[in-house]
């Protein structure tokens, strides 16, 4: 006896759709990780510049105290 398949979801189409969606999500995750890496690099560079700036800002005060 055959089941009534009218209105039933197409399993193959569902699997294909989910596979495509998974691939798109994996690509999005890869792009986000890449962007996070870029931002991390920029933050590290900015931190170094701020430390250098802070070092220069305090250097004259230290020199005046020694004089």
Helix content, binned percent: over 70%
Q: What's the number of helices?
A: 1
Shape: rod-shaped
Amino- and carboxy-terminal Cα gap: 103 Å
Strand element count? 0
Percent of residues in β-strands: under 5%
Low-confidence stretches: none
N-to-C SSE series? H
The profile of the biggest β sheet is: none
Rg (C-alpha, Å):
29 Å
Q: Please state the average pLDDT score.
A: 86
Name the structural class: mainly alpha
Report a brief summary of the structure.
The protein is about 85% helix and about 0% strand. It contains 1 helix and no strands.
Summarize the structure in words.
Helices cover 84% and strands 0% of the residues. With 67 residues, it is mostly helical. The model has no long low-confidence stretch (mean pLDDT 86).
